[in-house]
Design a protein that fits this description.
By secondary structure, this protein is mainly alpha-helical. It contains twelve helices and no strands. α7 packs antiparallel against α8. The longest helix is centred in the C-terminal third of the chain and has 37 residues.
């Protein structure tokens, strides 16, 4: 008689694989709302849509934040393993940017639901939390990479930009917070801090982007499933154009009277920077598109990396909107609208497939 061994039942753990790259879904959803609020063309229907999407982003932030906490509480060993992984650790830049994006949405769209005082308070609280977390990430992640004893897996990847961009997001969203501060030293301090974070992120980001570009030329594409991360480079470009122009415009609230020439200079700097960096952005946009088509022809499968199609494009929308407003140039404003339509298509596709993957367990329980 043959005795059959009992089948071992493996219990699925829903929070075991809630890694920091899940927060990219919050970023990608939140930027759809904030980008809509900054478009040069506005309507009542667009505003209602933007508010609804911001509510979705805020809800996702709460749900994913709670799941991520459970991941660390219930599966600490797995969480530590992910945090020490040379690629996954880069995505710890996503939670700060998720906080900042939802916070900006509160400032731009939350008044309808929360009232002016509560919306501003929520914006300020999330901005402070996101900024502190982003600055820590921009230091801790490179430190861990420099001091790691496991060097065999270290290679320049587009994901390296993830811990670099949060201070730039703080700079651009900090410009939106500036009018809510008292005149005088408080506004000056915030403006100076935003420009300092702009410089921090821009300089380190361009160094990192150079490493990534060189690696792509010498080593070729990353694995097919990671190909969408090439779009992350546009996040630095678009967000920096947004920050330079928003800060340049708001500088007139800080430098008045005899110092008004400083405000004019910063405004001109924002326009010049936006035009120059915008040209570079066109190149990277075209290159990212070509590489994505190349990967799609090689059976690019869906994964959370597809959220790289959303937030970076959204920053290009906000950058074009801010630059178009500063220049009062219709062509740039039309470009912002066209990019927003592209963003909507990308977001709807990725969000739909993410929800389907969660329902089927393909994303919660990876192989």
């Amino acid at each position: 008689m043959t005795v059959t061994a009992p089948t071992r039942v493996v219990r699925r753990q829903p929070f075991e694989h809630i890694t920091p790259n899940w927060f990219a879904a919050v970023m990608g959803t939140g930027i759809v709302a904030t980008a809509a609020a900054t478009l040069p063309v506005q309507s009542a229907a667009l505003h209602v849509f933007a508010v609804a999407v911001w509510v979705c982003a805020a809800t996702a932030l709460i749900v994913i934040g709670a799941a991520f906490a459970m991941h660390w509480i219930g599966h600490r060993d797995r969480a530590v393993t992910y945090a020490r992984h040379p690629v996954m650790v880069q995505f710890y830049g996503a939670p700060p940017m998720a906080l900042l994006t939802v916070g900006a949405g509160a400032g731009l769209l939350g008044v309808d639901l929360l009232g002016s005082t509560a919306a501003t308070a929520l914006f300020a609280g999330l901005w402070i939390a996101g900024t502190i977390a982003g600055l820590l990430t921009s230091v801790v992640v490179p430190y861990r990479m420099i001091t790691s004893v496991h060097r065999e897996q270290v290679t320049a990847l587009p994901a390296w930009l993830m811990p670099v961009v949060p201070p730039m997001v703080s700079a651009s969203t900090g410009a939106l917070l500036l009018p809510h501060l008292p005149e005088g030293q408080w506004r000056l301090a915030l403006l100076c801090a935003c420009y300092a974070m702009f410089g921090l992120s821009l300089i380190v980001g361009m160094i990192t982007l150079t490493l990534i570009y060189g690696r792509l030329l010498h080593g070729g594409l990353p694995p097919v499933d990671a190909a969408p991360t090439v779009w992350i480079s546009l996040g630095l470009i678009g967000q920096s154009i947004t920050a330079a122009n928003l800060l340049g415009t708001d500088a007139s609230m800080v430098f008045t009277g005899a110092q008004s020439s400083i405000a004019v200079g910063l405004h001109v700097f924002g326009i010049g920077y936006g035009l120059i960096m915008g040209g570079f952005g066109v190149l990277m946009f075209a290159l990212a598109t070509a590489l994505t088509v190349h990967a799609a022809r090689r059976n690019l499968g869906f994964s959370l990396t597809w959220w790289s199609f959303t937030f970076p494009v959204g920053t290009c929308v906000t950058g074009a909107s801010a630059l178009g407003q500063a220049l009062n140039f219709g062509a740039v404003q039309a470009l912002a609208v066209a990019l927003y339509l592209l963003l909507l298509a990308a977001w709807f596709t990725v969000a739909t497939r993410t929800l389907r993957g969660i329902r089927r367990g393909e994303l919660l329980y990876p192989a």
